[in-house]
Amino acid sequence: MSNDFILQTRDLTREFKGFVAVDRVNIQVKRGSIHALIGPNGAGKTTVFNLLTKFLAVTSGQIFYKGKDITQMRAAEVARAGMVRSFQISAVFPHLSVLENVRIGLQRKLGTSFHFWKPESSLYSLNDQAMALLEQVDLADFAQTQTVELPYGRKRALEIATTLALDPELMLLDEPTQGMGHEDVGRVVELIRRVAAQRTVLMVEHNMNVVANLSDTITVLARGSVLAEGPYAQVSKDPRVLEAYVGTVEEAAS
């Protein structure tokens, strides 16, 4: 396994009762890059994410993280090793404050998440770290806001902050701009660019403007298999990719 790549899969496969959802997928994610996983609906993108983060078991093939075979690792072990996933549906506690949500992320890293008998004041030592993370994602002014009151785009920024609280080396973002208006998309794109300066990002994303703006490398999936891979300028002109998205090359050109 090459040290240039933080994550590699070898013939990654997942079957569901005879249906092959992911078919011998080989992905190489370069350290320090933003790598996008794209494809039409049903292409297998979320299934690949579920396999990488151990929410689904691999039928066959291997997953290597930092050169180590993690195929049989459990989800919590993978997260502790530095590969952390941000979910497609916002996964924050709505009735806690923005600061409290980030503090919980920091608490998880300390391994004290279930120490319910400890007073809240025992967590105050994490406040400075939590505020520093909120500043990274432009949420410092919302620290005391109840999360349920945040606009949608700000909730996604908070979710990224809680993911950053676990200090990931590899951050997996599942549809980070889904359902956002233009202004929120722009804000989250800049946020991803900023946090990616110090880590590797692998993301599933439907918005092609976002993919074109952010990605160093794109892997295109179709029917569970890798269809094409490369920079956006190359992949976006690939006739196989146009056909997969539009139906036929002729339709794409018309």
Helix amount, in percent? 25-40%
- If you compute it from the alpha carbons, what radius of gyration comes out, rounded to the nearest whole angstrom? 19 Å
Strand content: 15-25%
Q: Cα distance, first to last residue?
A: 44 Å
Strand order of the largest sheet: 7-8-9-4-10-11
The coarse overall form would be globular
How would you spell out the order of helices and strands?
EEEEHEEHEHHHEHEHEEHHH
How many E strands? 11
**Uncertain runs:** 113-117, 248-254
The class by helix and strand makeup works out as alpha/beta
Number of helices: 10
Mean pLDDT: 87
Main β sheet profile: 6 strands, mixed
Essential attributes:
six-stranded mixed beta sheet, five-stranded antiparallel beta sheet, 10 helices, alpha/beta, disordered C terminus, globular, 35% helix, 254 residues, single chain
What does this protein structure show overall?
α5 (152-164) packs parallel to α6 (182-195). The protein has helices spanning 45-52, 75-80, 98-110, 127-136, 152-164, 182-195, 208-214, 232-235, 239-246, 249-253, and strands spanning 5-16, 19-25, 28-30, 34-38, 60-65, 68-69, 83-86, 170-174, 200-204, 217-222, 225-230. Helix content is 35%, strand content 24%. It is globular, with a radius of gyration of 19 Å. By secondary structure, the chain is of the alpha/beta class. The model is unreliable at 113-117 and 248-254 (pLDDT under 50). It contains 10 helices and 11 strands.
